[in-house]
């Protein structure tokens, strides 16, 4: 129970997050089990091994994602489950030599492709694959062979996006939304629509006919459709690339990245992460969670939170002034954002991120 947060994080990543990996590679875990796994890891991170109840300062969902986006790098159980299972789907469509894949194809798929096969009465393993196949579809693209395994509208086989995104109005009114490339290739007139085309629809239809015409005129380079992984550098599926796709949050958190790259011990990085989020166990934060103690700081009798502890407390101001005079700063920082502003400092020392080191000290 006396381990620092940083050491608990290492144990979580190396042990607790790895224990269910084998099961997650075979079955899609129910949400209740995923929640229980996350609860065990969360309790260990915040409470350690002791029996004493401690406060969870941040929700697990706000720390179980990559550090680049502001998390603590813990594994997202649901995303990892999908990433591990996705490898089975990709192998079923691409691996023609494996005995295991041959057995699975003969048992479940017969002569169809995985994405064309639907069955509600199958094993728990196969049902899990069917539930997560939409995620594999989003990262896949196809090289057309005979076209029997490729959805005309839904799959990426022409350009970089599905045809349903290029021609959304035609797809919406089409009666054959699950038709294959092979069927359309044989006859474009097999497509029927629920209403008469407007002027814009006519132009889209002409463009779509051009796509089908180029498909019909192309020679068969291969007999079988070939699946490629668009999210990988070598067009081969990896669990890492799928997990990165599922946990991608758009914008990198540059302020938090400065903490992780700073040349300081890991335990200080975890503490700074909590401080930056205003989630250290200050009196003000604990009162919000039902703590019955005094929310005033004992040193100065003022309201205690992360901002006050680091920047407004007389002792903190004294320390910052000493750093300013010793290192030649223009002024002392007034907030975490101000502190992280690189333009603020004109330090005579050339050590990287020296200011982060000082705050950790």
Describe the structure.
This is Reverse transcriptase zinc-binding domain-containing protein. The protein is mainly α and 361 residues long. It has three domains: 1-138 and 236-250, no CATH class; 140-230, no CATH class; 254-360, no CATH class. The chain has 18 helices and two strands. It has helices spanning 5-16, 21-24, 31-47, 77-94, 99-109, 124-138, 163-166, 168-173, 181-186, 199-217, 239-246, 254-261, 266-276, 283-288, 306-312, 314-327, 336-340, 354-360; strands at residues 140-143, 226-229. The longest helix is centred in the middle third of the chain and has 19 residues, at 199-217.
Radius of gyration (CA) equals 28 Å
Oligomer: single chain
Instruction: Give the low-pLDDT segments.
Output: 343-352
Q: How many domain regions?
A: 3
Helix content: 40-55%
Mean pLDDT score: 83
Share of β-strand residues: under 5%
Task: Label the overall shape.
Answer: elongated
């Amino acid at each position: 129970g006396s381990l620092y947060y940083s050491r608990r994080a290492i144990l979580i990543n190396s042990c607790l997050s790895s224990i269910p990996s084998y099961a997650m590679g075979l079955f899609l875990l129910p949400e209740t089990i995923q929640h229980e796994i996350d609860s065990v890891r969360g309790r260990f991170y915040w409470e350690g091994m002791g029996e004493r109840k401690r406060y969870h300062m941040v929700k697990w969902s706000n720390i179980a994602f990559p550090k680049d986006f502001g998390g603590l790098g813990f594994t997202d159980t649901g995303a990892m489950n999908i990433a591990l299972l996705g490898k089975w789907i990709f192998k079923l469509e691409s691996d023609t030599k494996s005995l295991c894949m041959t057995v699975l194809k003969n048992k479940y798929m017969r002569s169809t492709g995985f994405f064309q096969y639907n069955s509600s009465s199958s094993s728990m393993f196969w049902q899990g694959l069917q539930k997560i196949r939409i995620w594999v579809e989003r990262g896949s693209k196809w090289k057309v062979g005979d076209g029997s395994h490729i959805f005309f509208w839904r799959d990426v086989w022409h350009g970089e996006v599905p045809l349903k995104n290029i021609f959304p109005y035609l797809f919406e009114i089409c009666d054959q939304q699950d038709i294959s490339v092979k069927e359309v290739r044989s006859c474009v007139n097999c497509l029927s629509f629920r209403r008469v085309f407007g002027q814009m629809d006519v132009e889209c239809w002409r463009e779509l006919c051009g796509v089908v015409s180029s498909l019909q005129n192309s020679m068969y380079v291969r007999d079988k459709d070939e699946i490629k992984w668009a999210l990988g550098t070598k067009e081969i599926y990896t669990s890492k690339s799928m997990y990165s796709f599922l946990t991608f949050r758009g914008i990198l958190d540059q302020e938090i990245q400065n903490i992780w790259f700073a040349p300081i011990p890991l335990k200080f990085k975890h503490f700074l992460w909590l401080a930056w989020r205003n989630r250290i166990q200050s009196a003000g934060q604990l009162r919000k969670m039902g703590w019955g103690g005094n929310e005033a700081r004992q040193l100065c009798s003022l309201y205690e939170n992360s901002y006050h502890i680091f920047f407004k407390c007389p002792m903190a101001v004294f320390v910052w002034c000493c750093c300013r005079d010793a290192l030649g700063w223009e002024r002392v920082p007034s907030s975490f954002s101000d502190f992280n502003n690189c333009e603020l400092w004109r330090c005579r020392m050339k050590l990287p991120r020296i200011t982060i080191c000082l705050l950790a000290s």
